[in-house]
Write a structure and sequence with these properties.
disordered N terminus, 13 helices, 3 domains, about 375 residues, three-stranded antiparallel beta sheet
């Protein structure tokens, strides 16, 4: 549970836009001292955490008890936020107007672009922000008060927890690097001295470095989609359309333009078919086999996958790189420092829990 607890602990310091409680009567999921946590708050936290894990750690959901872990972590997060907020209020930590305005501004930045990524005019961004507040049933005054309280929590953590966090030394950083190297070489069994939670943390970091150092391709593609359950006639029509597009690319048709106008992958089509950098294991096997044989600037013949027909274009190819300690030392020091901070935050919250009255109600388990 170490990874999920760290995730939840970090989220407790970042959730500036949590809506104020609705005025309507709501079932209680928990009570922290005299502060209630409603079932609706709990469900919202659980849904948000599920989305975060789906995006950042999709393999997490392969665990048989993944949902139970998420449920517990979401409720723990709300309890921990309440305890930190109550402690900050008890200490009467001051938040200055300039700090509050900066906090509001940071949230508003999230509304500066449309869902498609286009920059919005200031008045349209402000309207989008106000509309979100309205949708959540939160007044501007309630929103600012919630941000003020969260900034108090950040000050509390800075003044108490950060001072406890340990800066890693050279020997610790080098040992961590050596363990990552073992993972990248497929020699994970040789790693000694780590418990299961620490091992999982290490594997997650090693996975990121694997992505950075692996052989990679910068690809564009045009997708001619074949719907699930398509008839033989529909499948043939898709194949013929892909073949015609490929023929046009041998003529004067520009690949970027063809992708924008003709690709059924709408997300990449907006970028001229750009898929970004790809490493082995990210694409369907039949597509990957063709992609890694292309020459830079070459367009593939149509390749069939379960999604339909792909026409690929290789823009760039980078060879696999050796992971060097001197190159990643600062990054590893930061990872270890963050781990220490998360551990110390967990210890501090345990101290707050020890002196608190926390009631968990059965309603929290409802879906």
């Amino acid at each position: 549970m170490r990874t999920i607890n760290k995730f939840a602990a970090a989220a407790a310091l970042c959730a500036l836009a949590v809506p104020a409680r609705a005025a309507v009567v709501d079932e209680l999921a928990a009570r922290v001292n005299n502060e209630p946590i409603t079932v609706s708050e709990y469900k919202k936290a659980k849904d948000a955490m599920t989305e975060q894990y789906a995006a950042a750690m999709p393999d997490f959901f392969k665990q048989p008890d993944a949902e139970q872990q998420i449920e517990k972590a979401a409720l723990d997060k709300l309890v921990d936020e309440a305890l930190l907020r109550q402690k900050a209020e008890a200490l009467k930590l001051k938040v200055y107007e300039r700090e509050l305005e900066n906090g509001v501004g940071e949230i508003k930045k999230r509304f500066a672009r449309s869902p498609e990524g286009a920059a919005l005019a200031p008045e349209k961004a402000e309207a989008a922000f106000r509309e979100e507040l309205k949708r959540e049933g939160v007044t501007m005054e309630e929103f600012r008060e919630r941000i003020r309280k969260q900034l108090m929590v950040q000050k509390l953590v800075q003044e108490t927890v950060k001072a406890r966090a340990r800066i890693p030394g050279e020997a610790e950083t080098k040992a961590y690097f050596d363990n990552i190297t073992l993972v990248l070489k497929g020699r994970e069994a040789e790693i000694k001295g780590l418990d299961e939670e620490a091992r999982q943390d290490l594997l997650a970091v090693a996975g990121k470095f694997k992505e950075i150092t692996a052989e990679r391709l910068r690809l564009r593609h045009i997708l001619v989609k074949v719907a699930e359950g398509a008839t033989p006639e529909q499948k043939k029509a898709a194949k013929d359309r892909a073949a015609e597009l490929r023929k046009d690319l041998d003529g004067a048709l520009d690949f970027d333009e063809a992708a924008e106008k003709s690709s059924d992958d709408q997300e990449s089509a907006r970028r001229g078919g750009d898929l970004g950098y790809i490493i082995r294991g990210m694409l369907p096997e039949e597509v990957e086999a063709v992609a890694f044989k292309l020459r830079v600037g070459e367009n593939s013949q149509p390749v069939e996958s379960k999604f339909g027909w792909h026409i690929l274009r290789l823009e760039e190819k980078r060879a696999a790189q050796r992971l060097r300690y001197e190159t990643v030392r600062d990054d590893l020091e930061q990872v270890l420092a963050q781990n220490s901070f998360a551990d110390e935050l967990g210890k501090y919250i345990k101290e707050l829990r020890r002196d608190a009255k926390i009631q968990i109600f059965a309603a929290a388990g409802k879906n």
